């Protein structure tokens, strides 16, 4: 069977994250410039190979000062590490719609294995005859594992920014 390539439809996809601020509220952000692709055997995703790259300078949280802080050396260090990348090592089916995506996530020059829970939304043809595939992925990483160590102590105890980052990813792919 031949290899099928799938390209991300960025206008119908979102790479999002949430981090607790002051230990009690979540601040959400996303990367607005990214690329992702999948390689499959035909339309079978059981051994799919996923790859992703996101531009650090496209991080957006709804606050320009915070975005600039995230791009700085305190966090992502966009000047020296302009992208985050992910390359899958396995895509394991758990049920008809549920998978675990394992791979290497690289942030700020540090690569670590991560696992994401993925829900396969299915295949459908759009009104223009393109075959599309949809995926929702969630997971958690510890930002300090990737050298994003900046923080500030609070008078009440605790810290300004949580170590845990929750990932919320929506991806739509077009069959090439």
UniProtKB/TrEMBL annotation:
InterPro entries: Lipid/polyisoprenoid-bd_YceI, TTHA0802/YceI-like_sf. It comes from the Bacteria. It holds the Pfam family YceI. Residues 5-174 form the Lipid/polyisoprenoid-binding YceI-like domain. This is Lipid/polyisoprenoid-binding YceI-like domain-containing protein. It comes from Flavobacterium ichthyis. The lineage of its organism: Bacteria, Pseudomonadati, Bacteroidota, Flavobacteriia, Flavobacteriales.
